[in-house]
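Researcher: Structure prediction, please.
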Amino acid sequence: MATDDLQLRDASAVLEKAADENFPVAPFFLPRAWRDDVMAVYGYARLVDDIGDGDLAPGGADARHLGVDPEAAEDRLLLLDAFEADLHRVFDSTPRHPLLRALQPTVRRCGLTPEPFLGLIAANRQDQLVARYETYDDLLAYCELSANPVGRLVLGITGTETPERVRRSDAVCTALQIVEHLQDVAEDLGQGRIYLPAEDMKRFHVQERDLAAPTAGASVRALVAYEAERARCLLNEGTPLVGSVHGRLKVLLAGFVAGGRAAVSAIAVAGYDVLPGPPKPTKLRLLREVGAVLRGEG
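Model: Predicted structure follows.
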């Protein structure tokens, strides 16, 4: 791998971002092949999000890898178009970007299809064009692109995909996305985006200016509590996915569900005041939630 590849987007950089997630991305107990495949998919998903958020490393190397003039690297839609073109090369030739080259063996070994990868690109395109969501159903449609493909890819990597498992996985992934939105209300607002449904903001008498306050007032807290309960119900809907598999995969999926539960609990412990910064669960709380999920406790 070239030096600029190592500097800009090496494995340690991906792992550092993985450590910030609410759930364990590719824990040590997984078989090595699964870990490598999950991290390849995670690297792809992170790069797509970094393009969509304008959070690429300085210097323009990612743009050059994708055949885009570094001077045009601020054009996120242009970069996403180039990235999609490079994704198609994963399936029919040789991709240009090193993270996509790293993804190619996983795609071939696991027989993955382009659809979930394209969904993640579509979600980031939508982020450039849509900054507000009128209804909860609108938000769910966004999560279908931004979150659910990741769970489907995990099922594909592990060879456990069935229609019922996909349905349960979608519920868990959507819940995790909603929880992340709740944790990041202030950060998203700083980027001009609000993922709280406008109809719910009206119901709880919350104005956009209320989300820019240093701490949340009673109305914002009530709104966050309402959305957190929705996420909790989705997690409960998806939890039977854990009991449908066995072995190490069961522990991994329990970690995903437990991460969501622990994050919802952290939001509650913060009194639903998410504006000072993202409420994060402790490792002890996460471990306790993993145990509860594995024991089948609600």
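Model: The radius of gyration is 19 Å.
Researcher: Thanks, that helps.
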